[in-house]
Amino acid sequence: MKMQLIASCALVLTNASIFAQDMSIPKVIYGEDNRVDVADSNNPLFIKLAMSTAAQIEKSKLTVRGSDAILSFESLENGMGVCPTEKFAAQNSIARCSGFLIAKDLLVTAGHCVRSQDECDKYAWVFDYREGEVNDGKLPSSSVYSCKKIIRQALDPISEADYALIQLDRKVKDRKPLKFRKSGSPSVGDELVVIGHPSGLTTKISDGAKVIENSADQYVLTDLDTYGGNSGSAVFNATSGAIEGILVRGAKDYVYDWQQGCYVSNVCESVGGAGCEGEEVSRISKVKLGKFTGIIGFFKRLFGLL
């Protein structure tokens, strides 16, 4: 029993250190687990949107060699102590947060993912970090970008604003910026899809969710299937493909399975109750991104005025 308690404590500490990389409240599964790899999605719109989403990966975990970027490998099972039967347990999970492209050289993520310029400099933004592209442990170095500077960032515990706008080190030429809501708000019941990197995994698409509450000023409450690592993910209107917000907070990711001696996903039938509080999505209209995009934003970037 004593050895079992020691092992359990070690697993908790390991899990806590992983979660510390993404300082948001963790996330959770509601009802059926709707996460799928990009290659397994049957929705052409979602596949297209996934092209313009990126993973935040520590630079120490990738090496650029000419035209290739070599990635470190750490499975979800080994890195977070999840059970081998857990979905995606054998896949690589080295991403810290998620982000998405809104102009040729501008990327949006959660504010808690880039708290300072020094922190931003430590990480690369990697497109195409998905199954089928990185199975051999590498991807084109052209898919790897650095943080040039943080243009705008908010992490306010009072208002609960949580977002960041980053200028990349160069323009992204092989994929299109995503469209986003500039004003107004989604409605309760609107269907949503999130694309990002749950638990640091390769890109996952998760649909079958909706807006649950719409009363808070800075965010909407949803039942998206998300985890730590999804922070900064784009949350899209499932019909139009326009971005409604940025995934920032949620309920508990994993619970310890004493019978198996490892962690399994926290599963809720619906939003409500302890451990099933719902997933919070910062309203992208609150970030006022219009001034940084379009023709005005183009000239500001051209003359270095951002």
- Characterize the overall form: globular
**Euclidean distance between termini CA atoms:** 59 Å
Low-confidence spans: pLDDT under 50, at least 5 residues?
A: 1-25
Structural class, from secondary structure content? alpha+beta
Count of separate DSSP helical elements: 5
Counting DSSP E segments of at least 2 residues, the number of strands comes to 20
Sheet having the most strands: 6 strands, antiparallel, barrel
Please tell me the overall pLDDT: 89
In the sheet with the most strands, the strands line up as 12-13-14-20-16-15
Kindly state the percentage of residues in helix: 10-25%
In percent, how much strand structure appears in the residues? 25-35%
Order of helices and strands: HEEHEEEHEEHEEEEEEEEEEEEEH
Radius of gyration: 18 Å
Please provide a written account of the structure.
- With 306 residues, the chain is α+β, with helices and mostly antiparallel strands.
- It is 15% helix and 34% strand.
- The chain has 5 helices and 20 strands.
- The protein has helices spanning 2-21, 44-50, 76-80, 117-121, 294-302; strands spanning 29-30, 35-37, 53-58, 62-65, 68-71, 95-103, 106-109, 123-127, 138-140, 144-155, 162-168, 191-196, 204-213, 219-222, 234-237, 243-249, 254-257, 262-265, 267-268, 279-283.
- The strands form 5 sheets. It has a 6-stranded antiparallel beta barrel with strand order 12-13-14-20-16-15. Strands 3-6-7-11-10-8 form a 6-stranded antiparallel barrel. A 3-stranded antiparallel beta sheet has the order 4-5-9, with no helix packed on it.
- A hairpin with a 6-residue loop joins strand 10 and strand 11 (162-168).
- The longest helix is centred in the N-terminal third of the chain and has 20 residues, at 2-21.
- It starts with a helix and ends with a helix.
